[in-house]
Amino acid sequence: MAAKQSGFEDIQTIEESSDHSIRKVSARQGQPVEGIQYLGKFENTFVVVWQAWRSVDLATARDYQTNALAGAKRIVMKKGLDVIPSN
Questions:
Q1: Domain count, the chain
Q2: Within 10 Å of residue 81's Cβ, how many Cβ atoms?
Q3: Hey, which residues does 16 pair with through a beta bridge?
Q4: Which portions of the sequence form the region Disordered (predicted)?
Q5: What is the pLDDT of residues 62-81, one digit of tens each?
Q6: Which domain covers residue 34, as residue numbers?
């Protein structure tokens, strides 16, 4: 769906399973933005976690991506866990 929006250049699926997906998104609207998106489902609960950064040098972008991807891979959705939004 996001790929059909103007300005999105790339949506790459990094990990896909029956209960979640992790994607890398690159957008070029005004100042370039990159990010990692986690979309998970457990029973009737859906969770979207998004970490993004604006244009930075290549080494910093690689560090941001590595950290965001590691964080997304640590997300576990199962009975008994609470999801608490943070600002």
A1: 1
A2: 11
A3: 21
A4: 1-26
A5: 999 999 999 998 888 777 76
A6: 2-73
